[in-house]
From TrEMBL:
Keyword line: DNA-binding
Protein name: TetR family transcriptional regulator
Domain of life the protein comes from: Bacteria
Lineage: Bacteria, Bacillati, Actinomycetota, Actinomycetes, Propionibacteriales
One Pfam match: TetR_N
Single GO MF descriptor: transcription cis-regulatory region binding
Amino acid sequence: MTTSRNGRVGRRPGGPDTRGEILKAARDSFADKGFTATSLRAVAREAGVDAALVHHYFDSKDELFIESMALPVDPRQVAARVLDGPPEQLGRRIATVFLGVWESPDGQTRMKALFRSVVTSDEVARIMREGITQMILQPVSQTLDVPDAQLRISLVATQLIGVALARYIIELEPVASADLPTLIDRLAPVLQLHLTG
């Protein structure tokens, strides 16, 4: 709450970075509570603005989620980085790129929010599944030149999801505190086995 020049007390009006503050409050809420338990009203309260201002910038909670969960990297660039190199090193590149996104503080906050929201909302899960399949999984599976490429890529995804849950969400030791190069060294051959074994 703030006091305006005319002495009225209330939520502050929109400022130059109000939209950014709303997005940050939304990211934090999605990370802490998941999709279902986050409300536009609560996000407004956390951002210190009137709920009508949140509705001014975002038509729905879905739209707020999609914008606030903007990944630290473009999924199409992720696919390009993963595919840039010899096929026998594909598992290592996937592990390096995926865990690299999680290792930055901003990336970790966004990815935690994404994971929690996916498991609490069928609609968010559908949106993410479709987007990730279209932008990452299909381009990678098309390079494998095997009849069960989609199954292989899906198995890689399950392995990555499991490691992310154990390391960043559940914080299962010693996976949670293992240094990144060691984790990549252990994970890469398993991913490569799914892909080309």
